[in-house]
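Worked example 3 (structure in, sequence out).
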């Protein structure tokens, strides 16, 4: 009987050790899983942040392009106005010269 009790105690101790080993193993696996989840979450956050930065960069480039096009149109309009102003001045001079040659001055300008 004593031998059986000793065997049972040994079996129980062995079971306890196995249970403890399994618990330790489960704990380590759980920690590893949590670590991987955290890494994946960080990676996803970085990807989302990068995507947001890309969107902001594209938006800024579009704004810059629009501003450049607007400035180009303004510059073209100024050039047109300058050209028209010069032509008007030349036309006034020609008109004044023609009228002084004829001896009459018209004040329609």
């Amino acid at each position: 009987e004593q031998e059986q009790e000793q065997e049972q105690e040994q079996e129980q101790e062995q079971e306890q050790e196995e249970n403890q080993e399994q618990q330790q193993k489960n704990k380590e696996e759980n920690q590893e899983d949590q670590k991987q989840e955290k890494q994946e979450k960080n990676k996803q956050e970085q990807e989302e942040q990068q995507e947001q930065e890309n969107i902001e960069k594209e938006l800024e480039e579009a704004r810059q392009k629009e501003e450049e096009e607007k400035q180009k149109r303004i510059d073209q309009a100024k050039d047109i106005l300058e050209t028209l102003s010069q032509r008007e001045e030349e036309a006034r001079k020609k008109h004044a010269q023609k009228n002084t040659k004829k001896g009459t001055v018209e004040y329609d300008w």
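Notes: Residues 58 and 64 are 10 Å apart (CA to CA). The helical segments are 2-102.
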